[in-house]
Amino acid sequence: MSERASEPSAQEDQGETLPELATPPEEVVAELAEDMRDAPTTATGARGPILESAGVSMVFGGLRALNEVTFSLKEGEIIGLIGPNGAGKTTFFNCLTGLYTPTSGAVTLRGRPMPQDPARVTEAGVARTFQNIRLFPSMTATENVLVGRHVRMKQGPISSLLHGPRFRRSEAEALDRAEKLLAFVGLSRFSDELARNLPYGDQRRLEIARALATDPSVLLLDEPTAGMNAQETEATRQLIFAIRDLGVSVVVIEHDTKFIFTLCDRVLVLVQGELLVEGSPDEVRGDPRVVEAYLGAPPDEVEAQLQTGAGPASDPAAGPASDPAASPASDAVESES
Ligand SMILES: Nc1ncnc2c1ncn2[C@@H]1O[C@H](COP(=O)(O)OP(=O)(O)OP(=O)(O)O)[C@@H](O)[C@H]1O
Ligand SMILES: [Mg+2]
């Protein structure tokens, strides 16, 4: 654990704290932690491996997008996954979450085979966000979070039809949780706003709230800061620490190496579908193979990039311009490549 969620963020240091963009409020964190402790998927505190892949390969026609990727996420860990465009990062998430069936290899959650169905993966306790944001654009922020919450709502058909007391209690609890989650990600003021009207960075935070509504024990974030400014990026870093402190283990794909190196306990570098290097941020930052193979620029130039935290020079996907989700929530896409 490199840092606590309660530490002041850079923007607070500069006296520029935006309303609701700082560290999640302590009372909301405490209440959420209490609520999530009762979830069936909750962390056991064993600190052993929770999500693992063994020799996962994914072949599309003649293209080997992933080659024998083996990894292990421990409870309470934040792992960063970096690599150039097309390295296979999103494909790996798709294999972990049942969207793709790996050509070979195995994915396990607490030692059990991962279901090959995204809905059942969510039920088992693995939630994710998407590189291309997937919200329901014509639903409010609250309604989007409620969609995530429905995974955990157990209703008998009769109670649902009659809107009986159990149904009403369950709906009230879901609404209460949605409100807490919106406060947690700093979006309370947008609770009744349509998702499509939210600023781009806030849509990404809303997607995180919806993912958290499913009571995950593992959260996979695909480029959570793409298109965000420096303040939003810092707030997202603090948010991920707070998510980890709720007992959720996290894997983050990101091109912004400064973000990754200051957030993660361990960093994995994927190059052309292969896990090239794995280690602490310091080990990865200083590894000559990363410098040579990952960024593909003269070593001194690459070293300077890694030190300053700039992304790869050839990184057109780091901002919204190359991301279809850049136009607000008009894109609840059905497939992710
Ligand atoms: N459904 C698919 N069908 C065919 N090829 C695919 C599919 N999904 C991914 N690929 C290919 O697999 C490779 C890895 O793509 P992937 O999207 O996983 O890379 P990435 O590391 O996430 O890149 P980026 O940083 O640009 O998001 C690419 O060559 C991509 O074109
Ligand atoms: Mg990707």
Automatic annotation (TrEMBL):
It comes from the Bacteria. Keywords: ATP-binding, Nucleotide-binding, Transport. Residues 51-297 form the ABC transporter domain. The keyword Nucleotide-binding applies. Pfam families: ABC_tran (PF00005), BCA_ABC_TP_C (PF12399). SMART domains: AAA. One of its GO terms (molecular function) is ATP binding. It comes from Pseudonocardia ailaonensis. PANTHER family: AMINO ACID ABC TRANSPORTER ATP-BINDING PROTEIN, CONSERVED COMPONENT OF ABC TRANSPORTER FOR NATURAL AMINO ACIDS-RELATED. This is ABC transporter ATP-binding protein. Transmembrane segments: none annotated. Residues 16-27, 309-337 have a biased composition (Low complexity). Signal peptide: none annotated. The keyword Transport applies. Residues 1-27, 303-337 are annotated as: Disordered.
